[in-house]
Amino acid sequence: MSMSFIRIGTAIVIALAVMGEPFAPAQAQSQEDRMRLLEKTVEELLRRDEEKERKIKELEQQLQAARKGQIKSGETAASGRKRADDGDVWSTEVGDATLRFKRLGVDTALAAGYSSEKSEVIQQLQGGDHDPRQNGFTLQTLDLSFAGALDPYFDAQANLAFFIDPEGETVLEFEEAFMETRPLFGLRFKGGQFFTEFGRHNPTHLHAWEWLDQPVIATRLLGPDGIRNPGARLKWQAPTPWYASFLIGVQNATGETMASFRANDEFFEERPIGGRALNEDDVDDFDELTWHARLATAFDLGDKTHADLAVSGLIGPNATGSRARTLIGGVDAVLQRDLGEGRYIRWTTEAMYRSYQAQADVNNGLLPDTLKDYGLYTQVLWGFYPELAAGVRYEYATGEGESVGIFEDRNADPFRSDRHRVSPLFVWQFAPTAKFRLQYNYDNAQFLPNNTAHSVWAGLLWSFGLGTERHHDGHDHGHTH
């Protein structure tokens, strides 16, 4: 029976009910009242019928489209696009797995400021490639991040970074591209190009730095752009009531991101370790790779206080000879207390030590030597209001063993001389994914013309993208800050 016949039949039944004396409403006192009531009732029923008919047609269209494969799980005809339940950009079924595109993001950091030193000295003071490195403006990074997963097997991530160097050249860095399996008996395998999980600062991307520049000791021992390279690592999380993990990994030792190891000729032209010369050798066995390990734990000290503690190690060949080795060790700790209502206080400390075996250099008349460099940074950040924070960082770096070649001695080497730095910081989180930072650096170092330098840096950092929120660092803490 068609919808029109249903409407006509309904109207006739109602008319008889309203107009018939035994069924007349008590409120209707005349034939005119009965007719008004009949008209309103018929209009309301017709309106409801039209609404039902429209909904039925919509459901029929969605059913037809679903049968043709045009609409899949999680998608609606109104939006016409995929909507994953957990906020993913896109997902689809692949056999017994789910392929997920979790995030596409852009993170940008712009700095501006002034230093009391000239341009050449500023680049020695601000030794990190992404530090503010000149008077005026510095584009520290434009970071493109991609994250996905093949559930329930593995996660994957890739990062590309652009920045402009002090000479005005645009630099593209292929930072990370790796996959990591889901836990199996507490074990997770990671393979690809990734930041070495050494210490606190090295695996942290620039957008998650609390201060505007890289710690001095990290620049000296891990290089201007941190340690990262192709490789693999295996991580085990222990089945303990508190968080505890151990990892071991191996990566290539050659390249500009392996400063304390084999590095390359371009790096040694700019920053030769201790003034030593590069002695190139072929990689012929696993002894020519860099190995790293890390033991970490995290636990609560009451309801509102949390602690992270870890030790890390690196060992591999360096560029001064076929039998020369570099050993780097480090410890790091974080203590954080929640003060309520978005307020907190966080104390972070990291110390590092490097033993760099320099082989004899017959061409330059240099005897074998072991160069030792060590130092630390310690910083306190106080979030005294949900959008405002202030802090101070202290840094110290020194060493043993003379620098040679282009340097008169160790004190003339900008990357090995005794150095102190104090850096007060102010942070304003003026939007959910954007913040302003203001930082002052007081430097005291032997290589400076007047032993001291003063710098002021302001920075803007903003992020946007699609999908789930990006992880801020490379650490698996077992808790959320």
CATH T-level topology of the largest domain? Porin
The number of E-state strands comes to 17
Contiguous runs where pLDDT drops below 50 for at least 5 residues: 1-6, 11-28, 68-85
Structural class: alpha+beta
**Over all CA atoms, what is the radius of gyration?**
33 Å
CATH H-level superfamily title of the largest domain: Porin
Order of helices and strands: HHEEHEEEEHEEHEEEEEEEEE
Arrangement of strands in the largest sheet: 2-3-4-5-6-7-8-9-10-11-12-13-14-15-16-17
Give the N-terminus to C-terminus distance in angstroms.
64 Å
Structure description:
The protein has about 475 residues and is an alpha+beta fold. Helices cover about 15% and strands about 45% of the residues. Residues about 1-5, about 10-30 and about 70-85 have low confidence and may be disordered. The protein has helices at about 5-20, 30-65, 120-125, 215-220, 265-270, and strands at about 90-95, 95-115, 135-150, 155-165, 170-180, 185-195, 230-235, 245-250, 290-300, 305-315, 325-340, 345-360, 370-385, 390-400, 420-430, 435-445, 450-465. It has two domains: about 5-65; about 100-465, Porin, CATH 2.40.160.10. It is built from five helices and 17 strands. The protein has a 16-stranded antiparallel beta barrel. Helix 1 (about 5-20) packs antiparallel against helix 2. It starts with a helix and ends in a 14-residue tail after the last strand.
